[in-house]
Amino acid sequence: HSGAMRRVVRRLRMLTAAVPNASPLAGGTNVTLRLGHEGVFLDAGSDAAAVFTLGDTTWEVALAWDRATGTVVGGGVTATEVTFTTPVAPDGVTAGVASVKLRAWSQETEEVPFIWYQDAALASAVSPPAGNVSGGTRLLLRTAAAAVDSRLPLAVRFSSVADPALFANSLAQFTGDTEGELLVMTPPWLHSGGSSGVPVALSLALNGQQFPTGTAAGNATYLYYDVRVHADGAVPRSAPVYGGTNISVTATGLAAAGGGGNDSGDGGGGVRGG
User: What single string gives the DSSP state of each residue in 124-167?
Assistant: First the structure.
C-alpha cells in the first residue's frame, strides 16, 4: 500500500441543485453542486468529475485532487458541496438546456438541469428612469426576449457611469412578456453622489454572476437622486367616490426629483412642482 490515506466514501447522495444553473458557452462561471445529506468526500482515488450533457455531446470537468494541499484543483469540496469553474463549451455545442451530474468513485448522481447560453443580454429601455437613493423603486427593464428564460437566475447591476467600480446588484424576474420585460427592485445606493443625482448604467447577468460591460451591456441608464419629495397641499381637497375629478398637488422637491411642471396622468390627476 502506498501509505496514502483513503477516506471511506458512502454512496453518492442526491444531487439537489447546480448554483447558478447557467453559464455562457465561453465558460468562466463559478458553479456549486449541492448534494443532499452527507454528500461526498473526495480524495486522490475518487476520479471525480462534473459531467455535462447537451444533445448528443457529453463533456467533463475533472475535479483533480491535490494530494499536497488536500483540496480540489480549481475548486473546492465540503461534505455537501462541490465547486468548480465551467470551461469553454466544446466546439459544435450551441446554446440550450443541458444536464449536469457528479461522478466519483465509479458512481454517479442523478442529473439536474443546466443552461448554456450564447451571448450576454442587452439591457435597453427602463421605466421609470429615476428613483431615490434609498432604493425600493420598482423598475421594468427591457431586453431581448430570446435571451431570457424564467429558469435563469437573473440579476441586474447598477454601475456608476463616472466610476464603474461603484455598483450595486439586485435580482430580477422575467415577467413572461413577449418583449423581454424584466421586473427589478432598485437596490439602495450607498455611495456618495452630487446634488444633481448619480447616473448609473444597467447591465444584465443571465446567470446572476457574469455581468457584461461596454456595448455588450446595452444602453439602459437610470438616475439615483437624493431628494425628499413632500406633498404640501391638494386642490380640491375632496371628490366624489365615482372619480373623474382633476386634482392639483403642490409638492416640494418635485422638480429636483425630475417631476417638475404640470403632469396629467391617465386618471385625470395633475401634479404641480413647487
Answer: EEEESSEEETT---EEEEEE-GGG--TTS--EEEEEESS-TTSE
Rounded Cα–Cα distance for residues 48 and 27 (Å): 20
Whole-angstrom distance, CA of residue 90 vs CA of residue 93:
6
User: pLDDT tens digit string along 135-167?
Assistant: 999 999 988 756 677 889 999 999 999 999 999
Name the nearest CA neighbour of 12 among 102, 78, 83: 102
Q: Are 203 and 123 in contact (CB under 8 A)?
A: yes
Calpha distance 248→22 (Å, rounded): 50
CA 184 to chain centre: 10
Q: pLDDT tens, 233-262?
A: 889 888 898 888 999 888 766 655 554 444
Task: List CB contacts of 143: < 8 A, sequence separation 6 or more.
Answer: 121, 122, 123, 124, 180, 182, 204, 218
